[in-house]
Amino acid sequence: xxxxxxxxxxxxxxxxxxxxxxxxxxxxxxxxxxxxxxxxxxxxxxxxxxxxxxxxxxxxxxxxxxxxxxxxxxxxxxxxxxxxxxxxxxxxxxxxxxxxxxxxxxxxxxxxxxxxxxxxxxxxxxxxxxxxxxxxxxxxxxxxxxxxxxxxxxxxxxxxxxxxxxxxxxxxxxxxxxxxxxxxxxxxxxxxxxxxxxxxxxxxxxxxxxxxxxxxxxxxxxxxxxxxxxxxxxxxxxxxxxxxxxxxxxxxxxxxxxxxxxxxxxxxxxxxxxxxxxxxxxxxxxxxxxxxxxxxxxxxxxxxxxxxxxxxxxxxxxxxxxxxxxxxxxxxxxxxxxxxxxxxxxxxxxxxxxxxxxxxxxxxxxxxxxxxxxxxxx
Length: 378
Ligand SMILES: *Cc1c(COP(=O)(O)O)cnc(C)c1O
Description:
By secondary structure, the chain is an alpha/beta fold. It has helices at about 10-15, 15-30, 35-50, 60-70, 85-95, 115-120, 140-150, 200-210, 220-225, 245-255, 255-275, 305-310, 340-350, 360-375; strands spanning about 55, 80, 100, 125-130, 155, 165, 170, 175-180, 195-200, 290, 295-300, 350-355. Helices cover about 40% and strands about 10% of the residues. It has a 7-stranded mixed β-sheet with strand order 1-9-8-5-4-2-3, with helices on both faces. A 3-stranded antiparallel β-sheet has the order 7-6-10, with no helix packed on it. α4 packs parallel to α5 (about 85-95) and α11 (about 255-275) runs parallel beside α14. The relative contact order is 0.16. Pyridoxal-5'-phosphate (PLP) binds next to α4 and α5.
């Protein structure tokens, strides 16, 4: 039985009536833009997270840019981040004119090495931007301590960690701004593109909301449509808003999020059982952490041969964020060659992303685990 890495059509079919209904609601509202779906989704998503301030936008990449701009980070500033992430992380920093300073990761969690962060801080450092990789949160308590000591802003790239917790508190409650993605493959997937910034403080949220929307307050748009207030631009902004259609679709899918997260945790347990004593490194969560399991990433010697054997059995795997950013052609100019970040490179040379998520049933996960056991012994 083939096991696809993703299956969007299957996920649509399981909620077809709700998704069709959401799309029809937007079409019939006559308000394809600046309607009620975006504010309603922001309220519902905020309630799910237990946070007061959600600013939606049109991608995780946009969320990172809006967070940086909202915090006033720009040319001359340095932002410390990690090389094993989506290119969105570094490109957002460069898009606002700041400089990305890369540091290595902890070999167990694959998230920012906090002692490396300490070593990278200069007088120009303005912010730290850790990545909650694969759904395992960065060491936020330690990062918050360093940030406080040095007066740094904190931005979480939590695009892979929706639903993760530290000490029972959900991700979204740690950094100054937490960034999420609603790309179709993420925990809560739109059928296009979407993202969100979660802020701890109301005036930062208001600034980000304005930046995401042409530098204009929503009330002005809604008022103008009703023939009321004149245009009034208070700052230069982007046009990176979530659209009504995606907001309506996300509202239809949000009720499944808890069950989907529980399913991912069950699948991760099945993998751990199925791969026990196999010659591979299986991922685990640190004490006090609830992993969100956006990815189930093992590490194995002879990685490419293992992936090929799995592919011949119809099992989809992924090179999740490998090779790392500092070895990508776009960043050759940084002069950070092989060996610059040993923990990152040891991971990205050996990692294999296995299929996980609500499009799979438990038997498929057991089958993949069995196939991996056979593939690693050759
Ligand atoms: C997906 C992702 C992003 C970017 O999100 P988009 O919605 O695709 O723009 C950024 N960072 C990480 C770690 C991601 O996984």
